[in-house]
Write a structure and sequence with these properties.
This protein has 163 residues and is mainly α. It has helices spanning 2-14, 30-43, 47-60, 65-79, 88-101, 108-161. The chain has a domain at 29-124: Alpha Horseshoe (Serine Threonine Protein Phosphatase 5, Tetratricopeptide repeat). The chain starts with a helix and ends with a helix.
Length: 163
């Protein structure tokens, strides 16, 4: 009796349907999930939230390829005037970090181009700020010289009026 019962159980289990996945979908890592969310937020115009998530990926997944992607997208987001963030120095920093920490990343060639363009832009902005400051100093100097000229004219008129 036991052998018949064991045979029945064996047949029942042996004939049971076993599900074997034919195509395994790769699961997203936590970093990829955060990147996808940040991309969605950036596309929807929520640049601040996207910036936060990109920075979070860089912090929490340092060394992972997703961190290189996050740095690249962060740099692009911060250099985009339409995003509302437009911080060229921060973008330059993101591309610098990408080039320093992930030199063999697939983003390296594009990051190098952005880095060079932003370096040139920042140099020109710094030069423009320096020149504006010089102009302000020159205007103040000119105002002082005008005042001195008026005072000299007054002295000269007083000297001419004396008999």
């Amino acid at each position: 009796m036991r052998s018949v019962l064991a045979l029945g159980l064996w047949l029942a289990l042996g004939c049971a349907e076993v599900r074997v996945p034919t195509a395994v979908e790769p699961q997203r890592s936590a970093a990829e999930t955060l990147l996808a969310r940040a991309d969605t937020l950036a596309g929807a115009g929520d640049a601040r939230a996207a910036q936060y998530l990109y920075q979070r990926v860089v912090r929490e997944f340092a060394g992972a390829p997703a961190a290189a992607t996050a740095l690249y997208r962060l740099g692009r987001l911060e250099s985009d005037s339409a995003s509302g963030l437009r911080n060229y120095r921060a973008a330059y920093g993101a591309f610098s970090q990408l080039l320093d920490e992930y030199p063999s990343s697939s983003w390296t060639p594009e990051a190098r181009a952005w880095h060079a363009a932003l370096a040139d832009l920042l140099a020109r902005e710094d030069e423009a700020a320096r020149l504006k400051l010089q102009i302000r100093w020159r205007e103040e100097e000119a105002a002082g010289l005008k005042l001195q000229l008026q005072q000299l004219r007054a002295v000269d008129l007083n000297l001419e009026r004396r008999p």
